[in-house]
Structure formats: C-alpha cells, structure tokens
Specification:
Strand order of the largest sheet: 3-2-1-4-5-7-6
Order of helices and strands: HEEHEEHEHHHEE
Strand content: 15-25%
Helix content: 25-40%
Distance between the termini: 37 Å
Shape: globular
Radius of gyration: 16 Å
Largest sheet: 7 strands, mixed
CATH topology of the domain at 4-28 and 82-184: Rossmann fold
Structural class: alpha/beta
CATH superfamily of the domain at 4-28 and 82-184: Vaccinia Virus protein VP39
CATH class of the domain at 4-28 and 82-184: Alpha Beta
C-alpha cells in the first residue's frame, strides 16, 4: 500500500495536523511507526530518528526526501529502544490495539520521560471520514482498511492492558481526530 497521506485532496493537510498534534511530545530518539513518506522526519534530527513502514514505495520516497535519516522497510523493529514512539493514524488499522501497544512498548525506553504517542480518527466522526473518502477528500484505501475506531475510553483501556498509562489526551480538527500519549505504568516499569 502506498503512502495513504498523499491520497485525497485533504490528506496532506490532515498529515500536517497530526504532526502538529504530536510535535510537543517529540524528544530524544524517535521511532516513527508507519512513517509513510517520512514527513515527521522534518522535525527530528537525523541522528535521533528511525522510521519504519512496510511499503517499499513509501520508504523509497522517505529516503529520497530525507537522505540523512534512517528508514527501514518492515512492520516492527526489535531490539532497539527510543524516548518517543510515534504512530500517526496507525492504531485504527491494526486488528488488536493491545497487541499493537504492547509491541510499541517493547521499543520504549524504561525511563519516566519516555512516551508512546498515537493519533487516530475519533469514532463519532467516522461518517465524515467515510463520505470524504468516497468523494476523494481523504484516502479511500485508508478508510477501507480501518479495523476499528477507538474512543478515549477504548484507547486508555488498551493502554492499561498493555501496561501503559495515559499521560495526555486531546481531540483536534474539530474533534474529528485525537492524540493520546502513554508512558510505562509505574507498577510495571523496570529500571533503565
């Protein structure tokens, strides 16, 4: 699947809004899950950024656009930890959010400042996303590949089951999207 944030008239705008929502959380080494064409790399020093995406076209575009940054074609990255793990508009595409967050947690440093940050459409606005995808405003393929749209309660519960605790939450774009930040649950955090 190609970079879905480039499909649809408003998709580049939505990508910029998602990036704007997560920028306050970017610190230290950053792992960008589902990085697409690598737009988030523009805001992270090349020495502190790793983007992963399974799509070879997206990875090639990212490498061309940000030649000093690291981009890897794969679904997951094992054996490395980061201060910030970001997943922009990805969690709604996975079959099991708890398994997904648990996997992200494996890449998170065990320090109090480390965060997982996710953006996702809010389920109450699904009808707007569906109509917009049908008339070419948003990516049709992205909408068709949604497994489930999670509300705040569902996101917090998935995080809790993964051993994470919500630290920040807000809706943006008129409530159509949401950003949530998690950190290790204090009871489950090991020393770094």
């Amino acid at each position: 699947m190609a970079d879905q944030s480039a499909e649809g008239m408003l998709s580049p705008f939505l990508r910029r809004q998602r990036i704007s929502a997560v920028r306050p959380f970017l610190q230290g080494r950053v792992l960008d899950i589902g990085c697409g064409s690598g737009a988030l790399a523009a805001y992270v020093d090349k020495a502190n950024y790793v983007g992963i995406d399974p799509d070879p076209v997206s990875i090639a575009t990212a490498r061309n656009s940000f030649p000093g940054h690291t981009f890897i074609q794969r679904l997951t990255l094992e054996g490395d930890t980061f201060d910030t793990v970001v997943a922009l508009a990805v969690i709604e595409h996975v079959p099991d959010p708890v398994v997904f967050l648990t996997g992200l947690k494996a890449n998170l440093l065990c320090v109090p400042s480390a965060r997982i940050v996710c953006t996702t459409p809010h389920p109450t606005m699904d009808w707007i996303h569906w109509i917009g995808s049908r008339i070419g405003l948003f990516s049709r393929s992205a909408n068709e590949e949604h497994e489930d749209l999670l509300n705040r309660r569902s996101l917090v519960e998935a995080g809790r089951k993964a051993g994470l605790r919500e630290t920040n939450y807000r809706r943006f774009l008129g409530g159509a999207n949401q950003v949530i930040a998690f950190k290790h649950d204090g009871d489950n955090r090991k020393a770094a």
